[in-house]
Amino acid sequence: MVLAVFRHTKIQSICNLTPYLFYNIITYNTDMKYRDRTEITSLILEIASHGATKTKIMYDAYLSYTQLTEYLSFLTENKLIKRQEGTELYRLTEKGRKFYQKCKEIDEMIESKNTRVDPFDVKGSSRRDH
User: Fold this and answer.
1) Architecture of domain 35-110
2) Please, is 75 exposed, middle or buried when counting C-beta atoms within 10 Å of its C-beta (0-12, 13-18, 19+)?
């Protein structure tokens, strides 16, 4: 009987937290957005610039294993990265380093002001962070 009550109260307390956790996940992930191929490629190049394993690239770039293998194939075929012989590390080639520098330059040129959208704002207006 005591175990049944414990289970019930534990489930009930988890259910009571669910809306709070859901709200925090939504508000925490407001910076997440659709990323285009160039942005993901640039991020992978940044991660691999000091040498990185597949696992590090996958976790740091927030990619699935399938996405990771597609991007690594693409980058390797285009000679932007290469796997260091004798290790599991991926490193930038000279061409990859130049490409990454150009991506950074373009990003700096088109950098926009920091705006944050409130997902619960009915009117759809955004407010600027000062």
Assistant:
1) Orthogonal Bundle (1.10)
2) buried
